[in-house]
Amino acid sequence: MTDSFLETLLPQLASGAAHTHALGFAFEGLDGDRVRIRVPYRDDLIGDPETGVLAGGLVTTLLDHVGGLAVWVGLGTFRPVATLDLRVDYMRAAAPGRDLLAEARCYRLTRNLAFVRAWAFEDDPTDPVAAAQSAYMVSAEGDHRPGANLKSRTVA
């Protein structure tokens, strides 16, 4: 993996999409093959106004996104990926008023698939709010324009 990818592209991929920017996702760094991002606590991200707990959908989005980043870390480059399967196990409510971190590791890569484990937590990865197991489709190398690699076929 090149320094340019780590220093330039990966942080942009962490927060550059419209939804990740709106949610406040921020690249926190790498520890070996583990990538970490943060979402700062904000009132508009609360799912339960009575308790101040962050929305579950935010946690799912955070885990899915950090999983995609882990795929790119595993590949050592950017290639289009798409989530095929995402299982999230919620273990406890996130602590109100606290930023949420997510960390992920791509533990298996094949030609077209990547398998990732991820977890969300406040301070300690061993005390997760939620954990995820996911699979991503990895686009083949080559032309990544929409439909460029599809073979023409007739549908009756």
TrEMBL record:
Domain Thioesterase: from-to ranges: 52-125
Highest taxon of the lineage: Bacteria
Gene3D superfamilies the UniProt entry points to: Hotdog Thioesterase
One annotated GO molecular function: 1,4-dihydroxy-2-naphthoyl-CoA thioesterase activity
Record's keyword annotation contains ATP-binding: no
Record flagged with keyword Hydrolase: yes
A GO CC annotation given for this chain: cytosol
Keyword list, A-Z: Hydrolase
PANTHER family (UniProt xref): 1,4-DIHYDROXY-2-NAPHTHOYL-COA THIOESTERASE 1 (PTHR43240), BLR7284 PROTEIN (PTHR43240:SF7)
NCBIfam families: unchar_dom_1
Protein's name according to its UniProt entry: Thioesterase
